[in-house]
Amino acid sequence: MEAHRQEILERKEQLTDYDEPIRKIVRYVGEPLHPGHEALETASLSLLDAYACLAAALKAPGVSRILGGVFEGEDAGGSISIPGTHLRAGLLSGAFQIGSLIRWLDYNDTFLAKEWGHPSDNLGAILAVADYLSGKGRELTVADVLTCLIKAYEVQGTLALENSFNRFGFDHVILVKVASAAVAASMLGGDEQAIASAVSNAFADAGPLRCYRHFPNTGSRKSWAAGDASSRGLLLAGLAIKGEMGYPKVLSTPRWGLADTLFDGAPLSLSGHLGTYIIENILFKVSFPAEFHAQTAVECAIRLHKKIKDRLEEIDRIEIETHEAAIRIIDKKGPLHNYADRDHCLQYMVAVALLNGRLTADDYEDEMAKNPWIDRLRGLMEVTENERFSREYHERDKRSIANSVKVVFRCGTSIKEEFDYPLGHRKRREEAKPRLLKKAEECFKEIYSEDKIARIMQLFHHKELFYKLSIREWMELFHKEGESHDRRSAKS
């Protein structure tokens, strides 16, 4: 007993060697969390919404490249259920597939700050590990998974509040890797030293580059980059559990550390309190799969549609006022070559919404892009920064994502719409909830029967039963094989 106590003390002492941001993440992830009502309710919505996004993605072109494992026979004998399919996978492959499907259509929840990202990307690792542990006899409940979700969101989002990787050309999925590594290591039973090892190795990976999100390299990698990051975080967690060493000064070592290599010497910052702020302020994509900096612009355009649809020939120009982050990411001129180009182009999204009064995933496909009016309207657009929009985007009590769209006609008259907060914002949460549930049901209709959808939604609405439900039963409910088990789950 004394030797064991001494070993624990020595390992805790070793933790002090790590850079402070890593120690802070380790302490937060390793300690019990007791989320309040708002955090748990919002986490429940995030989980359901992630499954909805995954279901919608199964119909998307290109998804077949990632389903069933990358290599033939890779997933033979795997136990991880891939929701919405008859497939099962190995642990790492399952994390990759689940994470990629959730992220595929750019329809999942979002958090915007100095860095951007989609915290539900971490569900690739979280759900795969939960399913894996259940198969090993350690039954986790939905409530357990929601707590892990909240922690992963908090790690990724709080790092995003204070650090910008994109300014240096690196992609935000590095934060998915870090958060997934931390939470997965904890879920797998790792102590503080193991969690620290996993997190430090995730930071040591750095990258990837953001080039696949921007002209002229915009491409489909952005649909699976998050699944890759989440499964990589899980791999690093597994290695840490087996005793793989960590790198205590990975952030601060002169020349070779992350600060000097990525940030031109500026230290990685993590000064904020880690609690439940990120899940409580998460942004949902409720009505359309648009890059989140464009959500309010699309809302404006949809509102304007009926007023301008019969006056297209009369338009002189279209003035879009936005915030600095949107200009940096989605202000695009010139040819758009593919889906990935179009769903990250502010002008394209606004043009489609003005023309059709809606924006769906299909509107990014080649068939819609052939409409000559889209490029005609894009050519009339002027995008400028509104300083108030940029300032309030970063203010902690506002966190707005404002846009305005003004259509000016040749006769000199004009009409304008402006939104500070998109429908998925915390300030519009109650307005959004029924539409989020409708979004889920509509997405589920693509692959499930009405009876199965009713069972899923019934469970979700009975929170006491929902929180106590085993995660394996919840995941089997979404599996295409297992109707008899699904019925038992719904009645339990």
TrEMBL record:
EC number: 4.2.1.79
Domain of life, per lineage: Bacteria
Lyase listed as a keyword: yes
SUPFAM superfamilies cross-referenced by the UniProt entry: 2-methylcitrate dehydratase PrpD (SSF103378)
Protein's name in the database: 2-methylcitrate dehydratase
Keyword Lyase: yes
Pathway: Organic acid metabolism; propanoate degradation
UniProt domain MmgE/PrpD N-terminal: residue ranges: 37-269
Keywords: Lyase
An example Gene Ontology biological process: propionate metabolic process, methylcitrate cycle
Gene (name only): prpD
Class of the enzyme per the UniProt entry, highest EC level: lyase
Reaction(s) the record says it catalyses: (2S,3S)-2-methylcitrate = 2-methyl-cis-aconitate + H2O
